[in-house]
Write a structure and sequence with these properties.
Elements (H helix, E strand, L loop, with lengths): L8 H11 L4 H8 L3 H8 L7 H10 L5 H26 L2 H7 L2 H4 L7 H12 L7 H4 L4 E3 L7 H18 L10 H6 L1 H7 L5 H14 L3 E4 L8 E8 L2 E6 L6 H17 L7 E4 L10 H14 L2 H9 L5 H11 L3 H10 L13
Parallel strand pairs: 1-5, 2-4
Antiparallel strand pairs: 3-4, 3-5
Amino acid sequence: MNKEFIVPTGKIIKEYLEENNISQKELCAKLGMSERHISNLLNGKTRITEEFAINLELVLPKVPASYWLNYEAKYRECLAREEKELELRKINLEEISKRFCFKEVFANLELTLYEQAKEMLKLLKISDFNNFDATYSNLEVNFMEDGGKIEPIAIWLNLCESEIEIQNLDLTDVKYDCNELKKALDKFKLIATNSDIKLSMNSCRKLCNKLGIYLVICEAITNSKVRGALSSYNGHPAIFLSGRFKTHDNIWFAFIHEIAHLLYDYDKKNTIVSFEQLKNDENENEKEITANTFARDFFINPEDFRKFVSKSNFTEKSIREFAKSQIVLPGIVVARLQHDKYIQYGQLAYLK
């Protein structure tokens, strides 16, 4: 109902009374109610009740009680929305805008600051910005060095959730089975040999969907520092990737990292957020250490890698040959060598 045209229910009742030549005093007599109470009802000062609507139906038989009750509900909803709007306009929206990244989230939308505030509340699924801390206090965040702020992290998680049904197939008739995922791990590794990131991740998503898993790639929000997350949606596991650094090795390592969380740490009630790798892996928590180890060993056999680095022969040719023996792209090997400090960051980066 457009608030520009909505009026108190009592005003509409007055029009019907006039059409039927019934005065306010006569209505009081017919309903057995005081003139003061009827006056308050007709002037919108008192809510129309079910009892009044049913009694009015007997006085005006052509108009069902449901008509008055439905109109009254919409009228009261409109008043509540106007009150909420006034409440939002009273707070410092400029500060709220900065805290909740309005410019970044709504960059391509022509929305007023007030409209952006309303949309952000919907995105975060809270009724008031003061409720944010309490709502997201239980978010299981595995902070890594220089971890992000909680606001952009929460925003990113909700943006990812809003993309689930857009990026994925309907999984209503598909059941997630951990054992089936384990059987499909080799398929993921083969898909990762496609050097085209977009094509390989599209194939990865299709396989995930067949296994009852959602996969969303959504660019990170500034200061979130997120690499990936494992959540749940409609009873299915959901993997979110930020695509930070946008290189094949980073995106695939992040994906397998979340697969490890899915295999070892999955809990439908909790969301696990993973951040950029620590400069010192010793400071990582146990879950992250396990997931990182799984991802490293998933792509490169640890014993084979030990033998490879023992030769200290890190040429393009040797790396390509070793990568071929591990059924991975050379960039995966380069990334591992860089991370483990066998070569400098930037060295042989063209192979990534």
